[in-house]
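Quick one - inputs below.
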Amino acid sequence: MTSSPDQSPVITLLTDFGIDDAYVGIMKGVVLGINARARLVDLTHSIPPQEVMRAALALRSAVEFFPPGTIHVAVVDPGVGSDRRPLLLRTERACFVGPDNGVLVAAARRIGKPKAYVLENSRYFRPTISQTFHGRDIFAPVAAHLSLGVEPADVGRETSSFVHLDLPEVTIVPEGIQGEVIYVDRFGNLITNIERTALDRFPGPSLSVSIGSMAVTGPVQSYAAVDEGTALALIGSWGVLEIAIRNGDAARDLGMKVGAPVTVTRDLQA
Amino acid sequence: MTSSPDQSPVITLLTDFGIDDAYVGIMKGVVLGINARARLVDLTHSIPPQEVMRAALALRSAVEFFPPGTIHVAVVDPGVGSDRRPLLLRTERACFVGPDNGVLVAAARRIGKPKAYVLENSRYFRPTISQTFHGRDIFAPVAAHLSLGVEPADVGRETSSFVHLDLPEVTIVPEGIQGEVIYVDRFGNLITNIERTALDRFPGPSLSVSIGSMAVTGPVQSYAAVDEGTALALIGSWGVLEIAIRNGDAARDLGMKVGAPVTVTRDLQA
Amino acid sequence: MTSSPDQSPVITLLTDFGIDDAYVGIMKGVVLGINARARLVDLTHSIPPQEVMRAALALRSAVEFFPPGTIHVAVVDPGVGSDRRPLLLRTERACFVGPDNGVLVAAARRIGKPKAYVLENSRYFRPTISQTFHGRDIFAPVAAHLSLGVEPADVGRETSSFVHLDLPEVTIVPEGIQGEVIYVDRFGNLITNIERTALDRFPGPSLSVSIGSMAVTGPVQSYAAVDEGTALALIGSWGVLEIAIRNGDAARDLGMKVGAPVTVTRDLQA
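Output:
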């Protein structure tokens, strides 16, 4: 990561803190006390408490849309106060700061090949470290110092081992693809783990998609390709196969959630 | 619109994306990747999915309080991926970017006489345009380029036709005014379509206000003019007649919602 | 308060406006129209309508983490439109702007000995003052002018009398401490009024903590000191005694809320 010349890079925040308390604001106060020029962007603070996988996926969905030099802070941290380590991942384009529990990894890999550092140099932490709020005491101040141009190697010790988080993988067979729902968004859209590249192995117009035992229309190009209320499959804004209902809520109306199996099959009649 | 000399104008965002996913943060990442000096302000992201009218009213309520040169982005977009056009409205004071479904019009008219442009110059879009997330791929990057001083005429083609959204109108007769509730806010205040100027046609102290078949106190000058728990009518912060309960929730306690009829009548005994 | 040399100090906002309407965004528009360089940070807008005590505690929890020169605006204002006065508190480190109903006091005292001013100089207000939204018409513009270096004495008249808000106090006896829950956070952690300094009067390893009639483990050093699902007491991120359940929700699972009695007793066997 190269710090931007005017030392005003973007720092994103993603937590499970919610927005009803002042915790997120406190992290921003800590950042701005170190670098008044930092540009803070909230990704989301609505991760259900301690759902590391959902946090990892939300962060991964966002990173490619931020400018080079962005520093991403993710604090979903059930292990705070234990011996879980504070971590920094660095790629060519971005830095990632948070607990070593897997929350950072999928996002860092999305945009590069990360180097990892265990945060050790307490000079870049707050003077007093609580056992319950490392977002405030370690991760926010480290991100702020990185935004001023401090080098990752000054903040921590490079390490080759860090916690990975295994995203569920798809199975590809000659007949098609077996995947699953990995994320449900605010609209009830069912985001799957079936990448566009997997679909591209089955070219031609004749694919069928089902979720659970239910067939849906598509893959189509856009919601507008079907009537309102119709369940459809398309490559959505995440760049993966998504099951949606046009102007409806697929999760609710189909009764589906994370883990629901999604199948893409080659149409035999074709 | 004149871009501010330091190229750091305000860009507001209003969507129905909620705050549980990273979608709003992603739009901010796109903006800051184009103009790192943009000042982003959230209006609200809690518009119920695809309620264009509520979005239009929320945007209209805000525009007069932003500085000249502000760029407003509104993405409540049930027609994304169809042939609905991406639109830019420009007044002397501000630009408005979003889908051509009416969401921008009431706000633009509140502060001027808008010129309209169909967004066509893909040079100012993201390189790849999804069929599902034009907020990220078209509206955010266009707003960011406008904030750098790009002229509306460079971004789109001027048009005289765009989608209007008819706000409900009041009926004024010699006996008084018949209007309705058009927006319910977080406090349960019932915002009506009865403007202060309509009330001014009935000068003097002797007006009566009712909602549905229920009379309320007022019009009064402030909540404090009545006891706690009392239903009242006043010109509220929107500059229109509003039905409220002092330190209470009028929508809940009176059982009223958008569309409820509100009547102002001249008191015959006066 | 000394204004920062580049006139871009932090302005925090804390309200009971929620995030579903544009009210908070409108306050930001007013601020940025006066000082385009202000750095706006949301503390929270989820205070339940008119809960002044909760607002005061949330603000108090945050102030020490913001840089010198920060201006804090708090608008939880059941008396708007009555004769309650608009207030400015000033300490060496920060300014506080809001209604004179106690919401500012605990926070100002946390970081200094405040001087108080009644806001009177309408030159620093919006031209028209509504009777219902002083956050927009008085508090936001005053905060913005302060951020430009306007002196408190120019904005208001110094006063020695302002409304205080009595936080519940602990009782300390030779056998221990009797306190209570004063705030429940998003995780269900039960924040008490028992300060670390009170606990320090009872040194040694042998203290017992109970909430209601239920004993909990601790005080411990961190959540990680107990098994998942175990109720514990620790000095949390607020710097006070807190009752929590490791990776659980203490408020829900113990059935406790604000006002629940919390007792720390010296263990006689020790």
